[in-house]
Amino acid sequence: MLSDTERRELEDAVKHYPDTRGATIDALLTIQRRRGWISDDSLLEIAQFLGMTVEDVDSIATFYNLIFRKPVGRHVAFMCDSISCWIKGCEQVQAQIKKLYDVDLGQTTSDGRLTVLPIACLGQCERAPAMMIDQDVYGDVTPEQIEQIVEKYK
Amino acid sequence: MERPLTQHILHSDGSTRTLREYVKDGGYRCLKRLAAGLAPKDVQRLVTEAGLRGRGGGGFPTGAKWSFVPMGPDAPKPKYIVANGDEMEPGTFKDRVLMEGDPHGLVEGMILAGYAIDAEIGYIFLRGEYHLSAQRLNHAIAEAYAEGYLGKPLPGTGFQFNLHLHASAGRYICGEETALINALEGKRAVPRAKPPFPQTVGLWGQPTIVQNVETLYNIPHLINHGADWYHRLSRTQDGGTKIYGISGRVTNPGWWELPLGITARELLERYAGGMANGARFRGLLPGGISTAFMTEEHLDLPMDFSSIPPEVGRLGTATMIVLDDHTCPVGFVLNLEKFFARESCGWCTPCREGLPWVAKLLTSFEEGRATTGDLSLLEMHTKWLAPGHTFCGLAPGAMAPLQSALKYYRDDFEQHISLGRCPWSKKSAQQRILV
User: Are B171 and B138 part of one and the same domain?
Assistant: First the structure.
């Protein structure tokens, strides 16, 4: 069930659009911020709130890179693998993450601490290779720095 | 050299400008001119005379775009203005620089564009990954509401504008204006058929202008200083400055606001400091990955919307990605096509099926399994996915770098076939020896 806080946040989001379904993305992001990911139950609650079918909301949820329909770790590392980062060695950075934390792209560490995902160009091309953990962006990343960066996220 | 858009943005410190600083430097001054009798049609005329062209990659004349919006007392209400801040084109980071460094410039640009087409509601559609931009824009919007620039009738005009920031959740196709409109309506973000064009039937069926962020930043300045001044900023017939960027193996990757029409050679040598130690220039994508490669022979072309011959390519977003001799051109193009295959919305079959096929073919080159037949198949795809065969511009855009790579780097493709491996890959060379 939506908590009172969640309900208030969704009611606020809906105000910005002439049609409630305009707030679908806001609703998905809001609930995900609170609960970590979008479960089937969450999907149903959002659909009921917005007056949409579950399938309709799911067709939006599954469309976007930043909506998680599976549980993720306490932190999510987004590894930019687009062209400028690829030229500057993003594959070596990824390999270092795998070596240190035994986790491939799309996987979560066994202690539930970190999920590692590929991401489309982060728009940090002048300081490639770049990555983002949760909402923090890191540029000019070298494999040697990975441990120091990731250790901030427990 | 004047840099109206970025003169107050520092390269180094990543700071932002407060409302107080923005106003001290002449920000929101335009709004008084509206009250002094500058009518919406006057703003439209100024934008047309200034020769402002869309900075999102298309280069469509902004004034012409606005001219399709129904005006006058019988025009449908409400109308919408939407800032396209879904900057997901790989290699492109210019709008981020503006939104992080000077968020009020976008708010003011939106108010003025809204006024020009009599749109009382604006949305900033921002890509979900730009958290710092979101934070700063939301703060700027709140400040603008508190000051009465938003949410209250502008003195002397009767025009009142409301603005909301919509954070998206990450999908490249949302940068296409009709997909963006679907996304904003809370629908699956697939493109819409055109016509009808958004200028008449857009967001929730109402007249809508979707405009790139950098384009909107230009509007306050060209209203303050006039069309002649705006033309003088540029070296060519297109008005204004442009934010150019360079990434790849160059000495100083970065961004610079420069006169439109500067050459790629000047950018590369004077601003980016030339190629990084030990790397040799082989080519560049002039503006994002949906543009065709340019090589040494094109480096002296003026980089604007009018001077690059169509058979060579187009400027795109003007944020260049450099290919050097340490980088395999086939691997480079494979990276691009994987991106396009992943980001295809799946709505139309040629794009949904064709792009993964292209990526698989390029993978076979990189893994040393390709044949000359695969080379022909790649060439056929550049025709099958050309404009007219797909629902929107995504797949044709994906074919621009591939087609030009097949032209300029054909020897490299053929070498992958004849050697049976990627000449740049140490790993595959070792594997071959072991076999």
Answer: yes
